[in-house]
Amino acid sequence: MRWMCPSLIVLAVCQFVPLTTAVGQENTAEETADDSWAAVEDRTPLFRTEEEQGRAELFAELEDQSAEVLREAAEEFRERRLDVFSGSPADFSPYADMLRYPKTYRGRPIHVRGRVERDSPGEGAIVLTVSGASGRQAIVLLPENAAPPEPGQMLKLTGLFFKLVSSEADEPSRPGIIASEFEPLAVPPPSQVGVEPGLWANVRHRTLGIAPAERDLYYLLVERAGQADAENFQDAARMYLQQRRAADPRYKGTTEAEAPFRRFVDIFSNPEAYEGRAVELIGHVRKAISYPADTNEFGIETLYELWMYTDDSQQNPAVIVTSDLPEGFPMGDDLQRPVRIVGYFFKLYGYQARDTARIAPLIIAGPVVPLAEPADDAPTFWLSAGLIFIVTVAVVSVFLAQRSDRQARAKLRQTRQTDDSPQLDLPESE
Asked: Alpha helices, DSSP H only, in 180-331?
């Protein structure tokens, strides 16, 4: 079911996935460029009289295109943009690409998925101000002839990129998108697991392993994480992260870019607040093992355990348990595999390290998403090894020379020492 939208301004939280023009309609933007696009200027206010024709033509174009056709063309355009992207595919950002190459995206469809926050009147069209999890925003126009979405409504829509919008000279540019309809979505499941209250009553933080009393919940989460919708699961994790950041007065008045939220510290300090919450982690897996699952009602036979390190973990691992690893993912304890996971926080998990007992967040995750492989660092390794050798030789040489010099000075002092010379007892270096 799809609804049409009336005249208003809607603030939504969403994600962006660029689409291409419809299959068989690849030249639409180019054909229109000589006419309606000539008057379009990027980094200008949304409503400019000289751009009315361009907006009208895009609305007309959307009436002739089906959402299904636009969706089918999305990956084709994304692949073309990836082909010309100089960095790693994992680093490709459609949003950043739009900001850098707005003329390339002119007339190209954009798929928006998000949550409506508020609405207010527009100028003969709906204007959606959308903000992603990272704070990135876009402006979306829709027609004015139907009921608006309710505040808090999750929705998705497909629109055509129009221009970069900026109302003031010092305002950051945002993609401007024109769409004709939206599709309401079921509100994603809350980040709290939808089970009876008090389920964590048997879970004990900072204890070794998984206790028998914890196993029923443990395998329930393994099952649910494996079956969760990936987009909704990720949305839940990002929304809860925003809630935790907003609740911390230390981050008031700052953006995530200015003051990154210390999620690892927050989990260690407030484990009860994360019980059953969705958590997204991006980092490197250094150890991966597999083992048979205990007997459980879900028929889960094998579990995979990953030891993962993130940028904010301060060399402390997170223990990731999943029943779904990509084919060919290596096992071992000498890995360096970049991955992204979304999972449920279960407990602060105790484990026995070489020196003492330690704790780590235990996350029960859905499918593990591999990221770009690190570049071959063999040349860097040998260069680093050579530099280390040279520095070591230099340090040893200096040390020996200084020791010889100290011995000579000591003998000299012994010949000059008087009875009132101070005698110092220095502690040994640790």
From this structure: 215-227, 230-247, 263-269
* SS3 call for 50: helix
Pairing of strands 126-131, 154-165: unpaired
Transcribe 345-408 into DSSP letters: EEEEEEEE-SSSEEEEEEEEESS-EE-PPPPP-HHHHHHHHHHHHHHHHHHHHHHHHHHHHHHH
Place of tokens 């958590």: 279
Query: What pTM, to 2 d.p., does this model score?
Result: 0.50
The per-residue pLDDT for range 127-171, each reduced to its tens digit, is: 877 765 445 677 888 888 767 777 666 667 778 889 999 877 667
Longest dimension (CA), the chain: 105
What's residue 391's pLDDT?
58
The torsion of the CA quartet 278, 284, 286, 289, rounded to 10 degrees, works out to 40
Candidates 276, 339, 260, 350; CA nearest to 306 is 339
Residue 409 CB burial class (10 angstroms; 0-12, 13-18, ≥19)? exposed
How is residue 299 written in tokens? 């028929």
Radius of gyration (Cα) for the chain, nearest Å?
29
Tell which wins on pLDDT, 248 or 32. Answer: 248
- In this predicted structure, what is the pLDDT of residue 222? 92
Q: For residue 31, which phi and psi values (nearest 5 degrees)?
A: -65, -35
Q: Residues 61-83, buried b or exposed e (16+ Cβ, 10 A)?
A: bbeebebebbeebbeebbeebee
pLDDT band at 335; cut points 50, 70, 90 = very high
Q: Which pLDDT score, from 0 to 100, does residue 119 have? A: 65
Tell the residue number behind the tokens 């009921």, with chain if given: 147
**Amino acid present at 49:** T
Structural domains for the chain: 9-185 (2.40.50.140), 199-370 (no CATH)
Nearest partner of 282 among 305, 300, 266, 264, judged by Cα: 264
Report the share of the chain in percent with pLDDT over 90: 24
Cα dihedral 110/115/120/121 (nearest 10): 30
